[in-house]
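Supplementary material to the annual report.
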Amino acid sequence: MLYIKCPYCGMRSQNEFAYGGDANVKRPELNEEVSDKIWDEFVYLRKSPRGKHIELWHHISGCRQWFKVQRDTTTHEIFRTAAINEDIK
Amino acid sequence: MSQEYRLDKVGLVNRDKKISFKFNGKKYFGYEGDTLASALIANGVHLVGRSFKYHRPRGFFGAGVDEPYAIVQLYRNGETDPNCRATEQELFEGLEAKSVNCWPSVNFDIGAINNFLNIFLPAGFYYKTFMWPRSFWYRIYEPFIRKAAGFGSASKKHDKERYEHKYEYCDLLVTGSGPSGLASAYSAAKNGAKVILAEDKPRFGGSLLTSEANIGNQSGKEWAEKIISELQEMPNVTVKNRSQVFGYYDHNMLVMSERISDHLPETKKFTPKQRLWYIRAKEVAISSGSIERPIVFGNNDTPGVVLSSAAKEYLKVYGVLVGKKPLIFTNNDSAYETAIEFKKNGITPVVLDSRSNPDSEIISEAVSMDIDIRFSHVVVAAKGYKKVKKAEITKISEDKNELGKIENINCDCICVSGFWTPTIHLSSQSGNKTKFDEKIDAFIPGKSKQNETTLGSANGVFNLEDTLKTSFEAGYEISKKITKNDNKISIPQSYEKKQSKHDKFWCVPLPKNKKYKRFLDFQNDVSVTDIELALREGYRSIEHVKRYTTLGMATDQGKTSNLNGLQLVSSIENKVVPSVGHTTFRPPYTPVCIGAIVGREIGKHSKPTRKSPMHSWHEKNNAVFVDAGVWLRPRYYKRGNENLFLASKREAENVRKNVGVCDVTTLGKIDVKGPDAAEFLNRVYTNAWLKLPIGKARYGVMLREDGIVMDDGTTTRISENHYHMTTTTAQAANVLSHLEYYLQVVWPKLNVNVVSTTEQWAGAAIAGPKSRLLMQKLFKDLDVSNESLPFMGYVESNLSGVPARIFRISFSGELAYEVNVESDNGNFMWEKIMEAGQEFQIQPYGTEALSTLRIEMGHVAGSELDGRTIPYDNGLDGLVSKKKDFIGKRSLIRKAFTAKDRQRVVGVVPLDKKTSIPEGSHLVKDAKAKLPNPKLGHISASCWSVEHNNPFSLAILKDGKNMIGQKLFAMSPLKNKTIPVEIVSSHYVDPKGERVRS
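Predicted assembly:
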């Protein structure tokens, strides 16, 4: 079970959180004309990288904030977590 | 029966407390502190089971977790457990155990014929034998394999025992209470760290219990006792025996199973049988010790062949002799301790040492005690079927290839020692690579991946002085890092006899013309020839060899067999062991009771149960409840002998005719507040929200980004910047997460807050033609006329002084209102409604009648919004705005979603107007068509239409609206029904929707 640092609540066990997928996915703007290809990529296509990955987690059994986690997908090592408006380089 | 193999004074068992137990129906006695294994050996019982494949007789091989043979079926307090290791099961009064894998008895086992058929049961025989004919699989092969597989049988009864889970945090978790565990725990605890010390066995001390070493002027055992009693007194230390740390998971989460009651005749009241600890440790000291490995020779599975360390443990801990004419076969010094122990107790062993000329303090001591030691000698084969009677021994050449003249020696046990294998399971589970240590011919942990250190013999350190030094230091360094304290305690002096180097020798070659079976894996009957065959057949990877031959599989996970298997593969392949590698170590280290893993989350405890504030009223009024997600909702209110059908029909009819009331507290409710709330709703829902006036409700549909309907419900504008959203019961939690996602991640600039208010409001839906009369009676000061409170109107009022929210919304299709009051007043509201409604013939209605009402009205719900349909499919396309953008809109113009013949919701009526159509039935054109019969759609919901008094269903049907008037068949192969049906409009009652507006 992962041990995740919620940027608002501190270290908590994984069972307080829900996984929210790739944090780098950007929704096309409202009313923006987008091609089928771009829309399909946004809705369906996700990379499955081996190694460092920035992803979203939701502290559902806690403060209910969405935040970013930089995690190694093979070792589960968590390098850092950040609020949504912070950048992880 | 006397315990003829029990010594008089030796051992740690309590001789004042005699315990009776039964094995295979026969009564025996042992002492408090015995294991089932030690008590049986004391009674001269060595035959405990039959082997897995060949049904060869099986005795005891070890004295602890590594035991591959002595797996028994245990009976305790009216319950039974399979897969119990007799070497770990402590004796209690009235214990009963039986052998497994034998029939009719362990002494006479029919399956033993496999031993003579072994030529037909080579490695991989499952794969070779059960391949064809294909039709045999289900009827013949699978039942046969199932019968032959496994060790014992699981109870089919409900387990009445209680198992608990516990979460714990600590600075340092120490796994094992041998010298390294005690030293690291003690020095860390003295430096202020919060320590948990876990010991698998009932007794603390590990190897110190049986060693002759001294620590700080006392025996190792006394030192261990002193340290343990000190640790037990310290407030920052938790000391647990009978507790196996069996898994090392991510981020230093370890799981430990504590056997609280397994050693007692029955579980005490208010006590669990076992407890599973989830321990998040800042640091872990793995001090799990090492397991002696066997030397491979002919018939090395005969009962009476035991590990030398186990023989010593039976002697020193339990005062039990594994035999009275022991033959000791070793390649290293540690077996001499066993020999000396026998000699001290008046038993004269013979020692065969594969080394030609070893010299050490302990060998000199053995020589001085007149023990018969033969260097360069090996056991070729054990003789005897159900117990060792003799051994064939011989001299072996320096290069270990040539055997001399074979002679027979009488013996009743063979204690074997092939040196030690560090127990690196936890370290490996932590993610560490392993490295092969040439000095000990075994793998030791590589670099630590998580915050853990492996200490003592688990790390390949086999001498006490180094073990104590490194462990005391590790405990101090680890604790200093965490507590910032600097209290270093001095390391005690220790003394043990120096040992000489072991011999790499591990397998005795077969003499010419002899075909003795030489076993590597004792639990799964994997012999040297099986591995050789697998390699001849082309298996190379050790993982493949493992799976093909079953080497190292089964419940002991190869604790005694893995390394010898690797030695064999590497010698055949002419590789060195590290390049062959080893199979992956996976948790659990020892078998864990399924009950302990499940804990208390069984039956009704598997998820929380949510009840509405009116629950007790429903209970008192004969409600029959149904699970709706985690909620309990009244399904119907039973009157007299009514069943579900009759009761729900009565309730629904009463709504259509008079007035009914339904508990709708369970609907999800979300407060949406903020200056941008309208804009946010406009983006979330498919329809327009910017112009909704205060005091009005609106029905809305929300989509996922892929265009599929996610949920529907009404949202009401309470005030300028305050909206009250409702969701379906099932989707409430998902919708809240969905809204939070968009507010926090996608559109953080929107100034809106959302919060769940589901539990703050109790809801009652009042529906039926007489509902307005009832409302007027309930809210005397309020004008509830159609003009003042029209359909989709909202107003606040009070119900006999209790603030209430009134929504004129309808799910039943009748004139209806929904009243919300604060949860605490829910029951008050409900009773008021029932009381005032009496004169209007009010009846409460449950979810079954609720479904009936919505189905015949053609209102879609969860069975149509099933995660596969878009608004168009549900006839909701009128609610999809063309002017504005919203979540999922872009997906709706995808090709498949705009296809002309897309599925749509329609009504279905059986032609005979009598036969109810099972939900899930497929709609087909031709009932007799060749399979697979093309499916046109499926029945999503069925009811008995109270308006038309015949069955009615909703269906999702291809090109649905153009199919109206067509005759099809509803087929349910599950219920074996084929029903001719007609497709009709989904709005079976009040198609123009006049009633809700009346």
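The first strand of chain A starts at residue 3 and ends at 6.
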